[in-house]
């Protein structure tokens, strides 16, 4: 199947990109075509005037991880090379989304495992259906993590909890995932699509460049010393205040009106 069929992308006139995993019949398991499709989608978002990204998966499960059926058809050096190729595309997709100013909203449902956890954890806002469940699964089949799972989990839930999930493969429900910080919040399954769309639309209307600066500051702050990070914050807020979006935001506040950040053109 062509990779464009594995991952769909639609960008509306307002700059909201809807990226959809389209292997619902296979739990949206990530094969080589899907990994490359995600990279194509990420690059399209980076090249277009995208203000926010909504990531979803068709079918009962958001993403159950890698396509083990595809992997099982190979062995030895061929399997080693194949996994290297799959992860290279998947990881480049994650890097590309992370480097953008546009915030990412993920809506997840059903069983989320392996690389599916990486996709969910990489989003800036992750909404989980009440029926969602999460299991790392890697070590259960003798694998180690990919898709940024070993990077995101310790930062989101702490190293002790991360190792608990990664080593025991304990399945946790959506409510616990929210309690420990793996997802942003839980919504009723029948409201997931609408709530995710509402959240993504609200972000689309926001100050995209300021969102990008905020994303980078939060990421850098996890490992930075306080002094250099305060300097980084000072530079960022000065640039934001002098920008068109900053001037619009302050003018709207003083004028007691809602700011219209969508009038501010995005820089290529």
TrEMBL record:
<dbReference type="InterPro" id="IPR001753">
    <property type="entry name" value="Enoyl-CoA_hydra/iso"/>
</dbReference>
<dbReference type="InterPro" id="IPR029045">
    <property type="entry name" value="ClpP/crotonase-like_dom_sf"/>
</dbReference>
<dbReference type="InterPro" id="IPR014748">
    <property type="entry name" value="Enoyl-CoA_hydra_C"/>
</dbReference>
<keyword id="KW-0413">Isomerase</keyword>
<dbReference type="InterPro" id="IPR051683">
    <property type="entry name" value="Enoyl-CoA_Hydratase/Isomerase"/>
</dbReference>
<comment type="similarity">
    <text>Belongs to the enoyl-CoA hydratase/isomerase family.</text>
</comment>
<protein>
    <submittedName>
        <fullName>Enoyl-CoA hydratase/isomerase-like protein</fullName>
    </submittedName>
</protein>
<dbReference type="Pfam" id="PF00378">
    <property type="entry name" value="ECH_1"/>
</dbReference>
<dbReference type="GO" id="GO:0016853">
    <property type="term" value="F:isomerase activity"/>
</dbReference>
